[in-house]
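Q: What does the assembled structure look like for these inputs?
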Amino acid sequence: MAEDLPFEKPITELRTKISELKSFTAEKGIDLSGEIEKLESRMEQLEEDIYGNMSPWNRVQIARHNNRPTTLDYIERLFTDFLELHGDRLYGDDEAIVGGIAKYKGQPVTVIGHQRGKGTKENLRRNFGMPHPEGYRKAMRLMKQAEKFNRPIINFIDTKGAYPGIAAEERGQSEAIARNLIEMADLSVPVICIVIGEGGSGGALALGVGDRIYMLENSTYSVISPEGAAALLWKDSGLAQRAAETMKITAPDLRELKLIDGIIPEVRGGAHRNIEQQATYIDETLTNALKELSEIDQSEIVEKRHEKFKNIGPYDYVNGTNGAN
Amino acid sequence: MEKIYELQVKNTLLNNEAGSYLEMDKEVICMLRDLFSKKKKKYATIPSEEAKQEVPEGLMTKCPQCKSIMYTKELKKNLSVCDSCGFHHRLTAYDRLDTIFDEGTFEEFDQNIISKDPLDFPSYPEKSQSDREKTGLNEAIVTGKGKIDGYPAVVGVMDARFRMGSMGSVVGEKIVRAIERAIVEDMPFILFAASGGARMQEGVFSLMQMAKTSTALNKLHNAGGLFISIMTHPTTGGVSASFASLGDINLAEPKALIGFAGRRIIEQTIRQELPEDFQTAEFLLKHGQLDRVVERKDMKDTLKTILSIHSPLSEGEVEEQKEPNEQEV
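A:
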């Protein structure tokens, strides 16, 4: 299959062999079912070995897979009555971020996410999912609107990062991201964030100040891309694999560091192998999270969010001193 | 000529580029000296590595902008602003505090917090340790409170010498604690940013400090507190895209580099050269991202004006506070 990644090669080879044997059986009428059965059980074992022991770099590759489901793929499957709303009312409409109103199991919600393209043409339109300031400002406008009408907010995070360009800087990329961080801290409605692909730095975080933060099993969240880190640390972007391990950017790593609230399991081999199935896994987490958060009093929700972020980041004291000034 | 050669000094404040100019000049002067010396040599000599190291450090400073050489002492007297071209040299955190606060009024907070190594990142503890030794600071920010022309304020000052002023968990924590003090003591909060952005060695922990500091600023905002952000050279990446951009009033020093994405990354992405003034304080002012660009010599007065307009104290009360026997701490 064209979508297979290099580390999946043994599986691909075995799969080809099995299908060859099957067609041989069909064509020549020779019974090879015993042989096929043996290979299929070996296949099972092989898949378990490979997908059960994925390296951080393997996960990066899956997170970046061309066919990886995007925000709109999930919106289509998880929500009804989705009505996309456009524009930041200041400058333009950034198609690298989509957002709108919808119903989730009958409940009105606002749903927003980074939107990559799946082919060159769409990627150009979507700017490869890398937003300009107007994208973040549109997202903020929609979140404020959600707050006004007391709707929970669901954000899908999937970006390599905010776009590095002249116009983005001129229009205040920094300010747009910063503004989202401070305003999201104050939203009086539940905010649920789900990293579905790449969570690239400030450009991802600008949709990420939530009451619950989840990651799909093979998604990543990082302060800098593995290539960028390798270039800065070891002056060699070819060491990205090593950087991916060192930087602790995978869902299991970040869960262990207690930086996220949970991992949403993926279909074996990655979400792209069965989008329908993947949507049901997200559905389960989303339902539970919304239920939990709906039980929190509205007056407490901001306070709890403040507390959540205040407690992030370990530090020490100089020998022999403690917290006292 | 001998004298001129002796005046060649290495200045730790200069960046690499300027440093290499210095090296070049040294060679040129060396050659010139040989050219005019009575006992003519047949060829110019280049000082050995050893000779280079013998040059005393810090006596003289060369301006990276206009290349004039001046006594470091004189430069410091002038708030580290070049006398001939107005270039604003970097300030250490404590030197910055001296330029702003009334003498003897500064009280430091949380000086004893130091970084952990949450990712077991190769050589991070050693690098932090060596920066602690080199700078005498425990982290890339100094926080505390003091008085500016009698007006009390809580302040944070970043120091770009410590891990490029990058924001890790300690920088985030110290900023949050300072903001909370500002809320509790009902004082304005002022922050001088000088940072390359998030601290890579703390990964997503450092990314989350952007949210952590912004969240604390949200509390200050809700409490009606004033926040003045001053961007100094450089204010980039995750620091620019969080608290530094969130002032009720955003100021910057002349020519300071301020921006989200690095210049090189933008150039590689768009494959064209960037205008010279790109991402300078003046560029941001032009594009509506700053309230004012303020020269260092005017900073204290500007802050005083802003503080007095926002202060619940009358001018008479502030004058009283200036009295040395006033016990406010």
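Residues 54-89 of chain B form one domain.
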